[in-house]
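Batch job 17 of 40 flagged for manual review because the log was empty.
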Amino acid sequence: MAEIIEENKSVAPSNFIHDFIDKDLEDGVYSRVQTRFPPEPNGYLHIGHAKAICINFATAKKYNGICNLRLDDTNPSKEDMEYVDAIKEDIEWLGFKWNDCFYASSYFDFIYECAVKLIEMGKAFVCDLTADEMREYRGTLTEPGKESPYRNRSIEENLDLFRRMTAGEFPDGARVLRAKIDMASPNINMRDPVIYRIAHVSHHQTGDKWCVYPMYDFAHPLSDAAEKVTHSLCSLEFENHRPLYDWFLKELGLEEAPRQIEFARLNLNYSLTSKRKCLALVNEGIVSGWNDPRMATLSGMRRRGYPAEAIRDFCSKIGVSKAYSVVDYGLLESCVRDNLNQNAPRAMAVLRPLKVVIDNYPEGQTEIIEVENNPDKPELGKRQVTFSRNLYVEQDDFMIEPVKKYFRLFPGNEVRLKSAYFITCNSYETDEDGNVTCLHCTYDPESRGGESPDGRKVKGTLHWVSADDCVKAEVRLYDRLFNAENPSDESKGSFKDNLNPESLVVLTDSVLEGGLKDIKEGDTFQFMRQGYFCVDKDSTPDKIVINRTVGLNSSWKPAK
């Protein structure tokens, strides 16, 4: 963990959050720094969470403090241990390690005692209004709300009703516990918010011990206080909730109360991070799961081949601010591309094979060609690939009637095969539908290594794979899942109306150079002229499955 942060020092530059913390330390408000990352286990972490993770962990690291993981499990009807396990795996993959792992449910006894204390102080009451009635009573941004007719129940009656709620005497939705604050407050969050509701649901941590559960706005500050968090860093949508956060801490007299500081959340175009909508994509089979490589989840990006370091670099580049902004997906892809360009070994793969027969190459003969592993890193040396009479090239590397400035194969044209020989196309074969099925070429034996002894120039250089020593693979060409810059824009219809129909193209007949026969899940490569790819988890020794991570250059344009 420490090593990762030190290598990526830009993760924790000075920013307005650190300015607040510096002032708190200087004024003696706090003598230490403790943060936390508190996701709700109701879905998988996404790219927006990556920013929050980097901010919380890097801030703690900068001040020699600690950062805990806390699973905010206050809504058991939507939570699952699958999500808990996935959250832990994603954080560790991203390169961070929490000091301790806690659950909000671990504090349910403490939170319940705080609710009882508010009742005893006359600061909370049991309300029988329905959810619809509470909305009607709440008022608007320009009009004050109305007090509940149950607001002035006696402390004794409220204590009795709350204990009966806890004992399971009432059905879901029959009653709630509300804080008694100010129904005329300009901040609607302060208008007697609900702090406990009835939910006869088994909890993944506490089982059937409870049938009342605290609301997030109540559990969050109390959990922070119980853990002795000093700085509660959260996204900007919680700014209007801060007065309520502070009210609970003040009224309950909790010492060394945490300070909440908000930052702008990460909004990435052409992507979807709403857990509700992501769950719909999964449940309706639009994607293969939360880890589908087209999803903006961290598990999806990991499966697609995005390096964790590239995601941390991306979060560093977008910085920390309070201003709302939308980040272009191309910046994330650029960070991925830059990282893989330095770290991914090179290889040759033909995605849509077209057979080539070199008629003047001896039948049955093969030879070893040495190819650079990375032209930018000569220290990585070379690898050996097999060359033979029968090869494969890409289908789009041949045209019967070439367009202007087309320098690849066409009848009568000569090209260079990467690190091998010059070949000239002499003829081609077609099937009954007119599709080209095979090229017949001749090679220049004196051009081994891709250089001609007479100095003639060849403009086109093609990658290739030997048909006698190739590895078959299924290649999945992933693209952005949505065509719309803001797929959640309901003015343009449902987010499902903005799906990119070409977000996944599966090629079942691709071939790889023979040295890749033993590749395993997670291995990454730059395929010459194609882009960056990784081995998918579906891959087996009998069937290699490859995912496209990102192209060599950004040429993506949304469909119109």
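Reviewer: the log was empty due to a logging misconfiguration, but the result itself is present. The two ends are 44 Å apart (CA to CA). Unflagging and moving on to job 18.
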